[in-house]
Amino acid sequence: MSEARSVPEASTTAHDLTAFQQNILTILAEEPMYGLAVKRELEAYYGSEVNHGRLYPNLDDLVDDGFIEKSELDKRTNQYALTDAGHDVVLGQLEWVLDRFVTDEGRAAEVRALIEE
């Protein structure tokens, strides 16, 4: 298994995902990507190398959980795309964070400024 999960469950919910897995979903929210493109995006975010042994098991777990789908681009390259369930996870996480962060008009203005960039 990948990341911190140790006991398999019947079905995974968004609350069971690690931050690393949530970051993968966020990256795929932009557009479908092949694995190495996801890896580069994660490395840019973390500022350090992301090991293949960490990335691909997490991608496989997210496929198994129904949050992303995997398709074959060619014989050696898979493409990953966010599913509707994955979209709901990303949106739910954003809503949860914003509900806690936007506590006054000043913070609301900060968020609006980010969106307008």
TrEMBL record:
Organism domain of life: Archaea
PANTHER family: NEGATIVE TRANSCRIPTION REGULATOR PADR (PTHR43252:SF6), TRANSCRIPTIONAL REGULATOR YQJI (PTHR43252)
Chain ranges of the Transcription regulator PadR N-terminal domain: 24-88
Protein's recorded name: PadR family transcriptional regulator
Record-linked InterPro entries: Tscrpt_reg_PadR_N, WH-like_DNA-bd_sf, WH_DNA-bd_sf
Lineage: Archaea, Methanobacteriati, Methanobacteriota, Stenosarchaea group, Halobacteria
